[in-house]
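re the bet — no i am not wrong, look at it urself. input seq straight from the record:
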Amino acid sequence: MIASLRGTVIDIGLNAAVIECAGVGYRVIATPKTLASLNLGEQTSILTTLAVREDSMTLYGFSDIGDQEMFTVLQTVSGFGPKLAMTALAVLNAEELAIAISTGEAKTLQRIPGIGKRVAERLIVELKDKVAQWQPAEVEGTLSAKSDSTTDFAENAQAGIADHVVEALVGLGFSEKQAAGVVDRVLRQQPDADSSAALRGALAELGPKK
């Protein structure tokens, strides 16, 4: 099991980075949030989870242990593999997922590409009692008051996507002001876009970094 990597960042892409450790380059799938914490040519330390299949071995990387643990918990749900778990964490972080699951916000969970009504309801039923550790204390004490919070939470989720994508663009060398303006425009045009789609749209508008 490869539990972590420490080395030099030699490449950063839309959904993965390559980290060179002792002369070996490891490709790590990661969310925009994690990719934004990396800088080309600099040393980094990243948490990893290795997914082994008959035909492949894939490394998933995390800058935050909470996201790594949520990645594992999500996969305890039937039909929820590592790719879908990573997609979920690209849209909502561990705390946001915990709040949505605990408060029964199925519509918020359906914002994640690949998650329909049935899967969202399954997440709520199977994980509701397993996600308390990721919830802020004030949320745990007020779950009964959350019945009308779907719209607000969805807006917060989109704001979270915007923050993650802006961070990723800044990590790629664009200014924060430039990135924020483009991301805001992309999300207004594509309100259902996840982090990866928003990042692709923003890069299409910005073009290659000069």
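see?? The chain has ten helices and five strands. told u. also Residues 98 and 132 are 7 Å apart (CA to CA). so pay up
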